[in-house]
Amino acid sequence: MYQLPVTSESVTHFVNSASSFEIEQQVRKYRRGMVNSLLEYLILNCLEKGKMCGYDIITLLHERFHTLLSPGQVYPVIDDMTEHGLIYKEKQGRAVMLMPSHLGESLLKAWREEFTSIQMQLNNLATGEIHALSCNARELSTI
Length: 143
Hints:
mainly alpha; Arc Repressor Mutant, subunit A; elongated
């Protein structure tokens, strides 16, 4: 199937014709995808502050990102992380408390370094785009 190329004009047209509701829907969808794709990192980040149960992690992520994850999304990831030695489970009464292992802490540190590198690249990209727009604006003003 042929797709039209995305140009700055088509993006501008979409933004100008899209309602704020449609834009907000797309932003929420993007945020939810980001939270899902970074779930292991986010779980380790939550556990860095101390022991938590799965319910507390779901609640904290909802408060931070305004995205409600279901237990069916979170608990399989917790089980997988436990299986791979990234976190430990400790039963306390009826609750199962989670804590990061040494491997999980090391991985969290490595991911943070990687995210810092990615963020720098994104900032450079954004700065380059702003610079290009500024140059284009100056060129147009001289015509």
